[in-house]
Amino acid sequence: MESLNFLLSVFLMGLLPVVPGGAPDIVMIDDMPLSPPVIASRKAFPSKSLSHALSASGVVILDIRSGQAIFARNEDRKRPIGSLTKIMTAIIIAESHKLDEIVAIPSDISDTDGSTASLPPGSHFTVGDILSALLIASANDAAETLARFHSGSSAAFVYAMNERAKSLGLKNTSFANSSGLDDAAQWSTPRNIAWLALYALRNPALRSRMSTAKASISSVEGHEIKLEHTHALIGKDGAVVAGKTGTTALARQCLLSLVSENGREYLVVLLGSNERYADLRAILRILRSFLV
After folding, report:
1. E strands, the chain, in order
2. If pLDDT is split at 50, 70 and 90, which confidence band does 48 have?
3. Which residues contact 4 (CB under 8 A, 6 or more apart)?
4. Residue 8 burial (CB count, 10 A)
């Protein structure tokens, strides 16, 4: 029965092969209810205890093997998502370009707002290296560079982002920029972000970067930039396999984490948190006690 449930969830999540740049034939995400998980445990999941322990106003915890939620809070409420936006940016680039393509850094890239990797204007990096800056260091200059490289302009790339969201069935998601800066037209929900992340993590190029604690990239001209993952627990807590952060004034602290416990993987989405790592540690404690 578990094998049947897994195959069904793989179909529902759109994890079957898709044509790069095309619209996959998947069930619309918002039509899919969050269901009780298929987990080998005789205990009821301590939802009430976990709810009291979390500061995040929007939460989803998905059991990846079954594709079902074991905990959710305000999972369909729209809110700012900060740099979790970069997951969509990365998907579009990974689906459309080879990692060894060469990208020229725009001459005005130093004007980019927010956190950056200090990409030197006029230098040249591979797509793979700029994706590393995007997903490891959450660099806004990497997002802007990739947006212009792919679409010719930031506005055209935002259109591509919203079209890709529609094709993935993300009805409660809207993008206004490639990096996640606060904007009235930039929002999503915990559930939409969870499904977007599941889709992204099936791509080895994206998963490897979301799992890398430290890296360095070099331009064609020889300029080296060291990168450190913005997710504080990557490489420091063995249970945290991959992740992505997001922080803005309106979004507050956001955190996406792929965690592994007792041979099972779970995806944790935290939006609007006051203490995202305290929230994640509380989730890990309860998961560990629940799965014993």
Report:
1. 58-63, 68-73, 102-104, 124-126, 214-218, 224-228, 240-248, 252-261, 264-273
2. confident
3. none
4. 12
pTM for the full predicted model:
0.87
State the CATH number of the domain containing residue 251: 3.40.710.10
Over the stretch 164-209, which tens digit does the pLDDT of each residue have? 999 999 999 999 999 999 999 999 999 999 999 999 999 999 999 9
> Please, are residues 233 and 243 in contact by the beta-carbon 8 Å criterion?
yes
- Which residue in this structure is represented by tokens 């360095």? 216
Angle, vertex CA 213, rays to CA 200 and CA 158, nearest 5? 35
Q: Around Cβ 257, how many Cβ atoms within 10 Å?
A: 29
Q: Tell me the CB-side half-sphere exposure of residue 202, using CA atoms within 13 A.
A: 14
Report the pLDDT value the prediction gives residue 34, as an integer from 0 to 100.
43
**93-123 pLDDT tens trace:** 999 999 999 999 999 999 999 999 999 999 9
Task: Give the integer Cα–Cα distance in Å for 71 and 89.
Answer: 27
Number of domains comprising the chain: 1
What pLDDT score was predicted for residue 15? 40
Say how far apart CA 281 and CA 284 lie, in whole Å. 5
**Range(s) of the domain holding residue 194:** 2-16+25-291
